[in-house]
Amino acid sequence: DNTEPLDGRFMEFEGDQALAEQWLNQFRWDEGLWVRLRLCFNLPFREEDDAILQLTASRLARGIWRARRPVWIVLPFSQAAEEAAAPFPLDERPAPRPAAPAPMMDQPDFPDDADLYAIARSQRLAAELGIPFCEECAKAAAAGH
Q1: How many alpha carbons lie under 13 Å from residue 35 in its C-beta half-sphere?
Q2: 71 Cβ partners below 8 Å, 6+ apart?
Q3: pLDDT tens digits for 22-53?
């Protein structure tokens, strides 16, 4: 319907056949649209989508049909907008805390050449026999005897 004037909220499609086809391709997923277009052209449902796309694009390119989209209003950037968007003023933000020093690495309990499997075997055997295998356990055992 060409009687309805554009009021600035919408932008009308203007382009040639190729641009109209490209624009229509974004709606390929919309099965309901293609059904309605088939009905507009009075085409059988066996007709290919490409034929419907070309017929529709032709009508859009020649201005027989009109397609409109909402106009996106881009507001100019301003200093006031930046200040309004700030979460809170810079001078009210707390100063960053100094980074904590890296924790000291513990010294290994055993030297690099220690046979840890042999130590584990002897501790397991001592536990099975009830023999204390550490200094604290030995002191406790001696105090209890």
Answers
A1: 4
A2: 8, 9, 10, 11
A3: 888 888 888 888 888 888 887 776 667 788 88
